[in-house]
TrEMBL record:
The lineage of its organism: Bacteria, Bacillati, Bacillota, Tissierellia, Tissierellales. It comes from Tissierella simiarum. This is Glycine/betaine/sarcosine/D-proline family reductase selenoprotein B. Keywords: Oxidoreductase, Selenocysteine. It comes from the Bacteria.
Amino acid sequence: MVKEIERAGIPVVHMCNLIPVSTTVGANKIVPTISIPYPLGDPATPKEVQWKLRHHRVGVALDALTQDVEEQTVFKVKI
C-alpha cells in the first residue's frame, strides 16, 4: 500500500518495528518504532518519558517526509 500511495505522488513514511518487513514490502522511508503493541510508547514508563519518545519519533517521521531519497532509507532515532 505504501508504494501505491507514493506512486500517486503522496510522500509516505512507514513507521514500524519490524524493519526487515518494511524493506521487503518496498517502503522507501522507514522510521523504527518501539514495539508491536505500543509502536510510539512504552506504558511501563512515566507519561513524560512516553511523550518524549512519541514526540521524537513523530518528529523524525515528519523530517523524513521532507527528504528526497533514491533508495530505501531507515532513519535514525534516539533509543
